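User: Show me a protein chain along with its predicted structure.
Assistant: Here is one chain, sequence first, then structure tokens.
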Amino acid sequence: MKHILVVDDEKNIRDLIEKYLVASNYKVTTYGDAKYLKEEVRRLNPDLIVLDIMMPNSNGLDVCKEIRKFSEIPIIFVSAKDEEFDRILGLELGGDDYMSKPFSPRELVVRVKNILKRLDKHVKSDVITIKDLELDKTLRQIKIKDVVLKITQKEFEVMAYLCDHVNMPVKREQLIEDVWGYDFEGELRVVDDLVKRLRKKINQQSSLLTIETVWGYGYKIEA
């Protein structure tokens, strides 16, 4: 049984999330703040964290940054703040997804399921080399000239998808459907935000390869 940590200072939200996750056959441990979350992650080794950003005694963004120093456990942020800056910052710090309050607990469960399903999917040993970039699907890492890029799980999945479709333009909607894996009702800018971060990390190491924008359509990588 997959183990989910739910961290939110509002008890009614914790209880609601726990109810829906337990009904979907997940083990759930809840916390009212993230003060000792790092220690709990090391102790419990959970499969995913649902993490509130704004809490009285702790900041979810700071906690995520600390967790990313030792673990790539998926993190879904939930927050009452829906400003673009906060959403992008949460994803840049290593969050795998971001939901604004109020949100549908059913949708949260779907997102949890899809993230865990992708991580559980058997991936054959496969290394893709394009110019000076090496993408290893087994190790789930990207190297450029022997430098391993520091990327999130979602950034890896988007890059792997683009590499699998090398020289072919990929629509934003296609990325949402095949990488995010749920019926996305928000704006497609979540794709643009992620690609912008990923492109910056690649361009810092490589002068040969970049993620090209196909205006009005999506993105592509050329070999």
